[in-house]
Amino acid sequence: MDYPEAQKSTSFNEHVSRIWNKISAPISALSLALIFSAIAILLLGKNPVEAFKSIIVGGFGSRYSITEVLVKSSPLILAALGTAIAFRCKMWNIGVEGQLLIGGAAASAVVLAFPGLPGFVLVPLAILASFLAGGFWAGIAGYLKARYKASEIINTIMLNYVAIYLVELLVRGPLKDPTGFVPQSARFVPQAWLPILVQNTRLHAGFVFALIALLAGSFFLTKTTLGFSIIAVGSNPKAAEASGISIYHHMIVAMFISGGLAGLAGAGEVLGLHHKLLSGFSAGYGFSAMAAAILGGLNPLGVGIFSFLFAALRVGADHMQRQMAVPIALVYLIEGTVIIFLQAREMLPNALSQLRKKAVNIWQNEKVG
């Protein structure tokens, strides 16, 4: 083999190695989570093979089930993309669930306040309100972190609970349907509904918005100065600051964009699916989004893939629960164990290295003594 061919071969091998290094962690974590889940299913006295088969059939066995996967992937994509942007800035936004709820509440408030507006004005206005509201909700934690070094993890977790009870307050108070007894708003005017993409299904235009957001997010992170600066702040804050990048500013902006995308997910749920505001409309999408973002390597393409997989898991698990009486909580077991295994994979080498250093130091001290 001559030198140019050898160089090409080396370059190809390096490229394959880089790709494998990126995908090996999520694949191994997901595999371990499935093994762990299989053990849990066995403990319930069920057949794990049949259970997983039921999940696959439930998620992809019919035209309707596939559209349901796309319906559930829409909020997951938006929320996971928002999570990824915040995490790329090393801002640990654990409050995506709350930001999603606040975004949905803001969109609902606009629709209920201006029912006479035409759809081409009302829908964009509601979507804008959801982005601003979700961004503001996340921006609170971003500001406290940037200005006072307050933990964004604790603040976003606590803001989740505030958002949950705020939505509960709204559907029992100012936004409650005056003609009903259930804690929910009145049904939105038809011009505020997102259009259905496939007849006789629930698949709405929110899925298209989610795909557009993925493309826009990829462009934002790789082709814009602001996206580059956000990544730079997360990668090396001191170097970023030395280059003239404002850490304070970009922390807040990253959180605002993150919360804004989660808010858009909330708008999609109330405008495209429920056509009303009701308590608990999120179904835990914000928490699942964190798992999808981490598994996807905080990359928009990975975020899209794992959001789709988690959506399929949700739809399939619902079918499994009906067919085999295996609780749908298995989904959350898989998501949680995936995150645990991923974090363990990153932390274990460092922990072992530190233990090795301590052992060497103890041995050297004993030898000197």
Structure description:
It is a single chain. The chain is built from 13 helices and no strands. With 369 residues, it is mainly α. The chain has one domain (33-357): ABC transporter involved in vitamin B12 uptake, BtuC. Helix 4 (96-113) packs parallel to helix 6 (152-172) and helix 4 crosses helix 10 (247-274). The longest helix has 41 residues, at 3-43. The model has no long low-confidence stretch (mean pLDDT 88).
Q: Which bin fits the share of residues in helices?
A: over 70%
Largest sheet: none
Order of helices and strands: HHHHHHHHHHHHH
Percentage of residues in strands: under 5%
**CATH class identity:** Mainly Alpha
Which structural class matches the secondary elements?
mainly alpha
Q: How many beta-strand elements?
A: 0
The third-level CATH topology is ABC transporter involved in vitamin B12 uptake, BtuC
The outline comes out as globular
| Total domains | 1
N/C terminus separation? 59 Å
What topology emerges from the helices and strands here?
Blueprint: H1 3-43, H2 48-60, H3 63-88, H4 96-113, H5 119-148, H6 152-172, H7 206-223, H8 225-235, H9 237-242, H10 247-274, H11 285-295, H12 300-324, H13 330-368
Helix pairs in contact: 1-13, 2-12, 3-7, 3-10, 3-11, 3-12, 4-5, 4-6, 4-10, 4-11, 5-6, 5-10, 7-8, 7-10, 7-12, 8-10, 11-12, 11-13
